[in-house]
Amino acid sequence: MLLKLAISTAPAAATIFKAVLSKVTSMTLQLTLSFSLCHVSGVSLNMAHKLVQVTLCLWVFTSLLLPSPTAALYRVSLKKQRLNLNRFKAARIAMNGWGMLHNYGSSDGEVIPLKNYMDAQYYGVIAIGSPPQNFTVLFDTGSSNLWVPSSKCYFSIACYFHSKYKSSRSSTYTKIGKPCEINYGSGSISGFFSQDNVEVGGVAVRDQVFVEATREGSFPTFVLAKFDGILGLGFQEISVGNATPVWYNMLNQDVVREDVFSFWLNRDPSANEGGELVFGGVDPKHYKGKHTYVPVTRKGYWQFDMGDFLIGNNSTGVCEGGCAAIVDSGTSLLAGPTAVVTEINHAIGAEGVVSAECKEVVSQYGDLIWQLLVSGVQPDKVCTQIGLCVLNGTRYMSSGIKIVVEKENMEELSARDRLLCTTCQMTVFWIQSQLKQKGTKDTVLNYVNELCQSLPSPMGESVIDCARISLMPDITFIIGDKPFKLTPDQYIVKMGEGLTTVCVSGFMALDVSPPRGPLWILGDVFMGVYHTVFDYGNLEIGFAEAA
């Protein structure tokens, strides 16, 4: 990894002052020599040249006192892995399974955020120890720990396919030994904490606590991954064992100029360069125009409040009251509520699974749902009134699209009862959304019946006809009151080349109950289009069109 210099804008006064203080001691001799040089040279020159000499002297002093305009940015060159259909299928299965089990938004520090590392595309190299041992890691804004395989990992297949850290070969290693387990829902890694120096993008981080993994789940995520481990860039609030994240130590040890890091992901499939992760600022060459900044609403993940969500020019209505969104460099997908993803699938012609239960609800209860909504019954009360959401004789209804009840109560419902209740809720949402667009009853019910055929497949891909991409609608996220549009070419994932090319939807279904949801996860599909700045100092996230 190389330490490169990049032209940057003039730093703020506080930054200049800080830089001056840190350099005063080392510059004393240089200033003395400069004064002597200017004095001696000034005496020997004629008056015509003295003005030039004075100007040069001032330039010398200014250069010594002020940070160079080419202030250092620390960069990690990112490599890109092309997806294939089998990996993508496995990724979608993993996302679906983990979404059912993970308590998204937990701050207890013991569960890593819902992850879909199977389809992660961008990764880079770090070094641990003295002399350095190199590891390929996924830089993940959705988690906060650093872990790599340990030389003491003997019984996990995944460890045999990746580089392993050997503490005995490092002179800067410090033993901690505290056991650790990181749960991923459908798997986990376990090991113990150690401490050593870590080099990231040319900058050395001293005494970094990390996890030596001695057991990795045998499921394909880690066995087939191109990366050895994961370097989390989330907040310490979700760090397992409350370990100080690498990024925090960069700030604590004053090795970066600004409390900012930024991602530029290269979406050009033919490019050799996958992108860059920049620590200590932003590279103006990575984006166009200005960034739109939104505040972090909940520390842990890089989470913010998102506004409306549009398919074409039409609002889906699901985020009219605001939705939580998480920027996650650890997944390439865009994940959102099932009801919305179903509408997207329908709009782009994605093949899903035909739901008999969905069609049953529409055919038997569609008219009644319409009448109740038109008469003014609140959407969150409709399914209780028609009897599709009943528990122990007491009618209930969640305030979200997907039903959520206490675990012991949920167990008393049969699988079919739960499915009918959830399907009813989605049907109410779809009809309510169409009512706002003043559609007629027959038109709306026909549309909802069609949506039943576009429900996201829980066990596989949503295949798209590649020839129809130009006919598909744009998808728009409203962030900071500004539209951030994704074109079909940007949200459709292409795999393979030539006659073997397969196109699949980049959207995944993920239902999270209020108050944490509805929730969107903006992965590499979004970050590749919009350069993303993570401003820790101001607790903001910035988006601008990527160069």
Automatic annotation (TrEMBL):
PROSITE patterns: ASP_PROTEASE, PEPTIDASE_A1, SAP_B. GO terms for biological process: lipid metabolic process; proteolysis. The active site is at D140, D328. InterPro entries: Aspartic_peptidase_A1, Aspartic_peptidase_AS, PEPTIDASE_A1, Peptidase_aspartic_dom_sf, Phytepsin, SapB_1, SapB_2, Saposin-like. Keywords: Aspartyl protease, Disulfide bond, Glycoprotein, Hydrolase, Protease, Zymogen. Residues 353-393, 417-458 form the Saposin B-type domain. GO terms for molecular function: aspartic-type endopeptidase activity. Disulfide bonds join C153-C159, C319-C323. Residues 122-544 form the Peptidase A1 domain. It holds the Pfam family Asp. Signal peptide: none annotated. The keyword Protease applies. SMART domains: SapB (SM00741). It comes from the Eukaryota. Belongs to the peptidase A1 family. This is Asparticase. The lineage of its organism: Eukaryota, Viridiplantae, Streptophyta, Embryophyta, Tracheophyta.
